[in-house]
């Protein structure tokens, strides 16, 4: 049966302008004159400008009245101007600085006298330090509280892009299992995954692809060697792609051969923990309660407690969007209340030291009717991609 990914349209300029209006309202409420965005995913989120971060500041000032000023080196003026005039981007004045000049002074000059400046929480430390030397530490504000709450609630257009990306990766996972053969190296599997992602319309997969065989699956982020696949090896593949900047991130674990009774038992516990986390993710619940649902069940099965091994060594899930890991997180201590439109991974990994690890990772989004899976979870150990 041929695969057809669900359709999704790129984020348009109207949606980005609404995001800026929402941010401007928050700036006014907090008495902050502007927010400086660096070359981060927040720059793309609000303006549509996707720029690689470097030691030269290229970013944008979002003012409390909704105006947008771009800041870039003078020699990048034409490129930035071209990108910000494209469909889906937000236009604005472009402020330029020469190599011997300070971009921080350029940004400061656009602020009202004594006005406070919020700073993108994702920028490099040198940007914060440069602003502090120019404006003074007391005029700087952490921009995270202003942006995270907006970015954590996904629009229907964002949900559609995430759904497309995740559907592509799930199909790539299925194709990869069918393609595996004895002796194949983890590096060869990664190349196959990258090529299949591109065939299906994703932006590749080599930038993020964990392939583990055997006891390397005990390591949450995989081993360091280029291991060859053997009969009856546990296989753990964690990979994703991008669609218009939005991420997928799906993990499957199975056996290339015949599973042991112990592996079957642990795999079933992992699947049940994932299911309980999903069922708990109702509106009004807290992020940490979702983590607790999975962790408490696993503790009752004899794992842990807490992060001890054998057991679950990390959080149950993370937010996802333009960043593969976004706040809020499904983790103890995160008391964020679930609201409609939040998107999370669900991956309460189980690690049996010296033997194997099992991670089943799918993503869901929250709605008034309850959580909704982006991708169908593994059907069973023997038929992980079945109905």
Automatic annotation (TrEMBL):
Highest taxon, organism lineage: Bacteria
Tagged with keyword Hydrolase: yes
Domain Creatinase N-terminal: 19-153
Domain Peptidase M24: start-end pairs: 161-368
GO molecular function: aminopeptidase activity
PROSITE patterns with a match to the protein in the record: PROLINE_PEPTIDASE (PS00491)
Keywords from the UniProt entry: Aminopeptidase, Hydrolase, Metal-binding, Metalloprotease, Protease
Name of the protein: Aminopeptidase P family protein
Origin species: Brevundimonas pondensis
